[in-house]
Amino acid sequence: MAVGNDRGLESALRRRLLMGLAAVPAAAAMPRLARAAGPPTSAVNTTGLAVTDTEVTVGILHSVTGTMAISETGAQQAEKLAIEEINAAGGVLGRRIKVIQEDGASDWPTFAEKAKKLLVNDKCAAVMGCWTSASRKAVLPVFEQYNGMLYYPTFYEGLEESKNVIYTGQEATQQILAGLDWVHKEKGGTSFFFIGSDYIWPRTSNKIARKHVENVLKGKVVGEEYFPLGHTQFNSVINKIKLTKPNVIFADVVGGSNVAFYKQLKASGIDLSKQVLMTISVTEDEIDGIGGENIAGAYACMKYFQSLKNPNNEKFVAAFKKMWGEKTVIGDVTQAAYLGPYLWKLTAEKAGSFDVDKIAAASAGIEFKGAPEGYVRIDPNHHLWSKTRVGRALASGQFEVVYESPELIKPDPFPKGYQ
Amino acid sequence: MLGDYSLGDLGAIFAMQGFAGLILFSVYVLMALGLAIIFGQMGVINMAHGEFMILGAYVTYLCTGFFQSHLPALFAVSFFVAMALAFAAAGLLGMLVEWALIRHLYKRPLDTLLATWGLSLILQQAYRSVFGAREVGVELPSWLIGSVQVTEAIEIPINGMVVMAVTMLITLAVALLLFASRWGKQVRAVMQNRVMAGAVGIDTDRVDRTTFGIGCGIAGIAGSAFTMIGSTGPTSGQLYIVDTFLIVVFGGAASLLGTLASAFSISQTQSTLEFFLSGSTAKVLTLLGVVAILMLRPQGLFTLKVRR
Amino acid sequence: MKLPTINDNPFMKPVEWVSLALLCGLLLVVLPLTLDAFRLNLVGKYLTYAFVALGLVICWGYAGILSLGQGVFFGLGGYCMAMYLKLEASSVEATRIQSTPGIPDFMDWNQITALPWFWTPFRSLPFTLLAVVAVPTLFSVVVGAAMFKRRVGGTYFAIITQAIAAILSILIIGQQGYTGGINGITDLRTLHGLDIRTDGAKLVLYFVNGALLIACILVAQWVKRSKLGRILVAMRDKEDRVRFSGYAVASFKIFAFGLAAAFAAIGGAMFALQVGFMSPSFVGIVPSIEMVIYAAVGGRLSLFGAVYGTLLVNWAKTTFSESFPELWLFGLGALFIAVVLAFPDGLAGVWRQHVEPRLTRRKAPTQSPPSVPAALPQGAPAE
């Protein structure tokens, strides 16, 4: 069954690959032509951004220090890789991208401060950055006030839509619903136990998941638990899980708590090859710390896995490892971060301008065929259409893709019936 | 919520829940023991205590890694070697810190707090530079993974039992050291009256240094043991620090028995509350309870009558 | 040796008037003229932390009470202000797309359909301004009374305040429907109809902030120079003697702690106004301890030092974290240790020992050396 599915998947991917291959040389060739006769600066920059005849400035804003540095490293590396590739292929509208990087230091006010610096002092044409919802919420008013453009890579809770932000990750319904449907159909998931870290993303995600389980799947939620960020003692909740005997454990625990949770789960005798566990918070990055042997058998619901088999991805993985080392792993957010610079480049070329208003207006409908995750498109609500995939964690720390939604899923940041 | 379950189920859950509380108790005791010695006996607030634990954890990480690649045959016992090394590494660093930093500050306890906080920042960044910002996982020997099936429904995690055993051994060792050895007598004498202790010929400087070293060494062992149940990252140490201090203060500084009693009551409260309420609420309620009791009884649960 | 009496102490010595004038000149003239709007706003943000450092000088430096939970009061003050601003930004028209218009957006996301009771009074600006100072101060008085009446002090007090900071941050993050959770209260727009996001408004807020800071310095100076300040110092050095002399030691401690909390709260409110949002990341343990270092670097006994220390540490943090992010923590850690081991009196101590003698030698060689009360430890307050 799974094998058949994979075959279908592969041939679908091969078809897309052909499309992608056709697109790549064209995209690579075009800017080189454009560089020879790049449009004059006065035409592409009417609002005083940092654009010269040869350069355009882009900001990168992630935490290099502090607790979030662990998570944000990959995103920042992917953005640099994408920018390097774009520069090697001739830049954007005939201009090389110059990067200014700032450290958000895992501190939300610092994010706001640095965002303001990037927009007001450095006049960045676009900023790739932020990871947590809190940091995005902190910089959002800054981007709206000073009319900047932010490419935000993380899967997040939704409930937001801004002219000044392109969300290259999934919003909650895109990430969760198809996965729940799959676990219901394939694994007979009817009773669910939710466990998450205590902040807005797990709570909102679980809220959406609960509505879906109760109203659509006609199942029930037998428990819903939240722990402070950084909590490391899960024995009590594991007992509770044993008592309530759910078909499916649905986990959105983040950060260091993850490690403790999966280690203790394993030690308590819950065998993930028998007990279905679906997580929306563990990517290849997190498994690095958890240890593959502790989480093998769990299912993760993402739009991208490093093990995806398609030429775009193979090229991306190879380039990433070449730039950042053989041992690095690539998670969902890292890939989404990689999309940011490319989407911005494509939009600027379509708009024929770096002006933020024109970029914002031209974003709807932008298609990127070279994405490692496959074809993506920007919706008028500035989120991406993307697929949902389910992967099974292997002891090696990689995921084996067991399901892929047949179609791209429409982003729906304000889902009706789920609020 | 309990009405729907059979008696057998309930019995099993209560047994496992009791055990979960005991594991938490062991974790708390391990965290607090080193601090109880340093804070309780010496009056020094060591804010870098968490970082000494993490040092132990990283030593364990390196050590098990070494065994895995060079001595796979002995991998099963690598954990004990790692613990000994963790004790030595953290202890030596502790003695160094005492010599360089702490001994200048015995008269200013609040200042040791700031200085050791600075030390903790430096250690965190050092770990980050050496081991990277990502958390590292320690691979456990196979005999440490999984659980023991006691009855059909009761399963006890093996690593939890190991943590408990380690805790008991260390506690016993500390109690013996403090109350039955020459060193323990000297430590207690210095604590009660430093000048007098010096006058009767006790080398108070040396006693201070070994005391601090042993306290830090125990923290190292704790960190080593925690790799079995938790994560190891540059900033993991900070997660423990508040809990640890509260346990020591709640128990009444300077009292080993108090530390045990407070770790026991806090862990049982928290694990019971966690079972009936949500995790976050349980944590807040436990901390609130501790603070409330401390306001009513600031000297903690147990106190020694000491003339100062 | 003749001990100085209260009458010998004018409100401020000449050298202190000069210091005050220098600080006013720097904050209100030099910085606004030399910095662009962005950097000035940044300085404004740093100066809000100076309120906390100032409170710590009184509470820690003079009264000897080290609180590791000042972030709690900074946060409470900030949250009170932010609640008012958020309500103003959540008018029915502005929140039309919500299922319940007219309440803050994060409440709507958390299925709260009516404004919680404790939010309602914050629709009024006068109430808010009162609450900004009153709520944190009352809280500090309750905490202080509970502890100081039972003679909890020193390290115990430090650890308990730390635990309170931990509890409050878990509470705020956990109750996200009512508090905005870990995101905090964001997207604040107007104060009583005036847009606080424009450069002009930020400039005005900067001056308000500066003026408030100087007012707080004057209040602290008054406390320091009054009999009250003498008792605080005496209490720090020999608590029992003060108690046996018939003073209610606990009340004085509660006062010092409450004053520090009130200062911190004003800082928090100004922070919310200038930065445009409030986040629970200030309430935790780490920022609370970091704020202690501002006071320590400036000199724990120097009111002006608190301001300079705050500016210096934050300036260093911004500069170093921009150019050498990896080195910043090493630097900060070393700073903590250096301030404790080598410069216990911080910047103010360096100034007094090395700069001031030269100035006075050149200007007025006949001036008598500053008189240090005998009971004080060496190098204690003689600004």
From TrEMBL, chain A:
Hydrolase recorded as keyword: no
Signal peptide feature range: 1-36
Keywords assigned by UniProt, alphabetized: Signal
Pfam families: Peripla_BP_5
Keyword ATP-binding attached: no
Protein origin, superkingdom: Bacteria
Family annotation (PANTHER family): ALIPHATIC AMIDASE EXPRESSION-REGULATING PROTEIN (PTHR47628:SF1), PTHR47628
UniProt protein name: Aliphatic amidase expression-regulating protein
The organism's taxonomic lineage, starting at the top: Bacteria, Pseudomonadati, Pseudomonadota, Alphaproteobacteria, Hyphomicrobiales
Gene, per the UniProt record: amiC_4
From TrEMBL, chain B:
Location within or outside the cell: Cell membrane
Keywords from the UniProt entry: Amino-acid transport, Cell membrane, Membrane, Transmembrane, Transmembrane helix, Transport
Annotated transmembrane regions: 12-38, 50-67, 73-97, 156-179, 212-233, 239-263, 275-296
Keyword Transcription part of the UniProt annotation: no
Membrane topology designation: Multi-pass membrane protein
Keyword Cytoplasm (UniProt): no
Protein family according to the UniProt entry: Belongs to the binding-protein-dependent transport system permease family. LivHM subfamily.
Stated name of the protein: High-affinity branched-chain amino acid transport system permease protein LivH
Organism the protein comes from: Methylobacterium crusticola
Gene that encodes the chain: livH_19
Automatic annotation (TrEMBL), chain C:
InterPro entries: ABC_transp_permease (IPR001851), ABC_transptr_urea_perm_UrtC (IPR017778), LivM-like (IPR043428)
Transmembrane parts of this sequence: 17-35, 47-69, 125-148, 155-174, 203-223, 244-271, 291-315, 327-351
Subcellular location: Cell membrane
Keywords: Cell membrane, Membrane, Transmembrane, Transmembrane helix
Region Disordered, annotated ranges: 360-383
Domain of life where this protein originates: Bacteria
Membrane disposition: Multi-pass membrane protein
NCBIfam families: urea_trans_UrtC
Protein name stated in the entry: Urea ABC transporter permease subunit UrtC
